[in-house]
Specification:
The complex is a heterodimer. Chain A is α+β, with helices and mostly antiparallel strands. Chain B has 2 domains: 46 residues, no CATH class; 111 residues, AhpD-like (Up-down Bundle), CATH 1.20.1290.10. Helices cover 62% and strands 0% of the residues of chain B. Classes of the chains: A alpha+beta, B mainly alpha. Chains A and B meet through helix 1 and helix 2 of A and helix 4 and helix 6 of B.
């Protein structure tokens, strides 16, 4: 008779139910509670510790007969786990009293010929160490190893799945926050662009207004200077057919008068528009 | 050993009323067996009792969180202690068949090895305490509850286990007083 197979046959139903419920578990708390409920149906034990190690962090589950606990901690291995990591060979040996407290967080009853069974499991990026404390009253034997292996496979697979899901949800949350931040920044940029557009619009309008003012000034200058300038040009035309004396007597006084008028008008225009030109210059400088 | 001839009318599936047929169907579907057990057929003339007793059996033995194989072992053990031939054989067959799922060629009968180190202490403790609860319920003490707790059973599981004690008393009582014989189909399945 195959001892391991017979053991598995007895625990088959309990393990099937456990696997079915485990597949529906969504949190580490549920996994912990479910495992605690079912361990007693699989084999005898006083305390079990399951550590799954991924990169630099480890997830530790600890079970006694009636209690369960789990926590994350930075890499820290007890002496048996260090041996397992080095040699990867299962450990099955007597346990000294002093070593018990390093293996479990729970108070155990006085043990008779305490033993430890510890095994190493490699799941690629995740490694797991399982340590079981048993004694003469609750013997964990080699015939229990097969069901322990199945339990560990299912357990670590589920806890990895929950942890990855949790990490994914955290990343999604970060991603959502980043998108929200980008949205806020985009709105700020849009607001800045709108402000710039408004400023450009105002400035364009100012430039157009100033251009209109400049054209108006030029038109005014042109119009006021036209009349004396025409007179001077007319007198110069007349001067072509007269002698020097006639020019001095008949044309020059009028020419002087027209030039003086031109000077007066020019000074007056300069005076009148100086303030506007000064203002325009100042605005342009800004 | 109970050699009493059947005292209640055994109603076959073919002769059953529509209401009784529905209950028979539910027993076969739930227990995943292709025939109706004599334990149900001897109650087939009284649909009200049959419905109530089936509901009790279904919710106590077949549903719940405690492994069915453990419950079957409890029923088997109490029935054996009480010499209820029908229930000893029937539930012995159920318990053994549940442990033959992997390889039926392996010669290991669970019911003949209740002290085997292959059986976890939690099973053994539950079988002992619940057998006591069924046979000597007045002697059950807080220490018995503590024994169950000490091997990891929760209050809810203990309640489910204790329910097997009153269930097996009903099963044994009906099987014995009706005088039913073990089902031929079950014996053939065991052979």
């Amino acid at each position: 008779m195959n001892f391991n197979q017979s053991k598995y046959r007895i625990t088959y139903e309990a393990f099937s139910k456990f696997s079915s419920k485990l597949s529906k578990a969504e949190t580490l708390e549920e996994v912990s509670k479910l495992t605690l409920t079912n361990l007693k149906y699989f084999f005898n034990y006083h305390s079990i510790s399951i550590k799954s190690i991924t990169r630099n962090h480890q997830l530790c589950f600890s079970f006694s007969i009636n209690k369960a606990d789990f926590y994350y901690e930075k890499l820290g291995l007890n002496i048996f786990e260090k041996r397992l990591f080095e040699r990867k060979v299962p450990i099955y040996e007597e346990l000294r009293e002093n070593d018990i407290s390093t293996l479990t967080n729970f108070d155990l009853p006085v043990l008779e010929e305490a033993k430890i069974y510890a095994s190493y499991f490699d799941y690629g990026s995740t490694k797991a160490c399982v340590s079981i404390i048993s004694d003469e009253n609750r013997k964990f034997g080699m015939d229990d190893v097969e069901i322990l292996r199945l339990l560990t496979d299912a357990f670590v697979s589920k806890t990895r799945q929950i942890r990855l899901k949790s990490e994914l949800e955290e990343k999604n949350e970060e991603f959502k926050n980043a998108i929200q931040e980008i949205d806020v920044k985009n709105k700020q940029i849009e607001s800045i662009v709108d402000t710039q557009k408004a400023i450009i619009k105002i400035r364009t309008k100012n430039i157009l207004d100033k251009n209109k003012q400049l054209v108006s000034i030029l038109q005014s200058i042109s119009h006021n200077l036209q009349e004396p300038l025409s007179r001077i040009l007319g007198l110069l035309d007349l001067s072509e057919g007269v002698s020097k004396d006639e020019f001095i007597v008949d044309i020059l006084p009028y020419l002087k008068e027209s030039a003086t008028d031109l000077d007066i008008i020019f000074k007056d225009l300069v005076k009148k528009n100086a303030e506007d030109i000064k203002l325009l210059s100042k605005e342009n400088d800004e | 050993m109970n050699n009493t001839p059947t005292r209640f009318q055994v109603i076959s599936y073919e002769d059953a009323s529509k209401e009784v047929k529905e209950i028979y169907d539910d027993t076969m579907q739930t227990m995943q067996i292709p025939f109706v057990l004599n334990w149900f057929k001897c109650q087939g003339s009284n649909p009200i009792l049959l419905r109530g007793n089936w509901a009790k059996l279904k919710s106590t033995l077949l549903l719940g969180d405690v492994p069915n194989v453990l419950k079957q072992l409890i029923i088997f053990n109490v029935s054996k202690e009480r010499n209820c031939n029908y229930c000893t054989q029937a539930h012995g067959i159920f318990a053994n068949s549940m442990t033959e799922m992997i390889d039926e060629n392996i010669n290991f009968k669970l019911t003949e090895n209740l002290d085997s180190p292959l059986i976890p202490e939690s099973y053994k403790t539950a079988i002992n305490v619940i057998t006591k609860a069924a046979l000597k319920h007045a002697e059950i003490t807080d220490q018995d509850f503590d024994k169950l707790k000490s091997v990891g059973f929760s209050t809810s599981e203990i309640q489910e286990l204790m329910a097997q004690a009153d269930l097996v008393n009903m099963l044994n009582t009906i099987a014995d007083i009706s005088g039913i014989k073990i089902d031929n189909e079950l014996m053939e399945a065991q052979a």
